[in-house]
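Thread: quick sanity check before group meeting

JM: Hey all, I'm pulling together slides for Thursday and realized we never actually wrote out the predicted structure for the chain we discussed last week. Dropping the sequence here so it's in one place. If anyone has concerns about the input, flag it before I start.
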Amino acid sequence: MTRILLPTDFSDNSVEAIEYAMKTFKEVDCTFFLLHTYTPPVYHTEYLIGSPGQIGLGDIMQDSSTTQLEKLKKRLEDQYDNPRHSLVIHTAFNTLISEISDTVEREGIDLIVMGTKGATGAKEILFGTNTVHTIKKAKCPVIAVPPKFEYEAPKEILFPTDYEIEYKKELLQMFLAIAEQHRSRINVMHVHTGYDLSADQEKHKAELEKLLGDQALFHEMPDNAIVRAVNEFQVKSKINLLVMVQNKHTFFERLFIEPVIKKIGFHVTVPFMVLPQV
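JM (edit): ok, ran it. Output follows.
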């Protein structure tokens, strides 16, 4: 039974992400956890001194959260009516990031699927703050779904890598399960820097070839910025899912901090799966 966490703020994008998960895993036995967190919009002095229950604010917010989750759960059950799937609702007075971490540990979550933008997400921001923090802190894979993504099964997957890390089966487990289920082709993209691969990189590449088997095609991209290379690959080839390993020693972190992002934009027009390094 695959256990998938679906955080929602009830925005269109968060519901699109939930529907993406249910469609992608329609042939898989899954428990989906619909999660909504709430915190008071204004922290009154009496609220800080006392407790939410004393002034009734917490109860009101909890009731509202539960009602909205129940409504969403019923709509999804009616719409998809999949005997392989069960939905559980969970509401909490907490910050989203903290509750996600707690839920992943408590429920043994295998995957988080969420939108890239929150209800108040500014258009110029690459990902919403919550999505970025979730990706950086999560101990399980995360799939971030961009707004208004028209569902496509992940048949063509792009997997950029610099071969700087060891590829173990447990690291790629969820990624491989999705690829196997959808009979996907995995496009491994190496952005070379003009130098030959080191002995370690060659070893890691061989590990990856063995793990991915016949499903993989290996591409060498010219020496340019990783962001530009990913964007160019997406333009030339039809891609349904972008997958990367979260690794502080490689280019992943630079996607969120390099000034070049602001200049050329990281145009993620497809769901983006991030694997934590285990």
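AS: nice. The chain has a mean pLDDT of 83. The radius of gyration is 20 Å.
JM: adding both to the slides.
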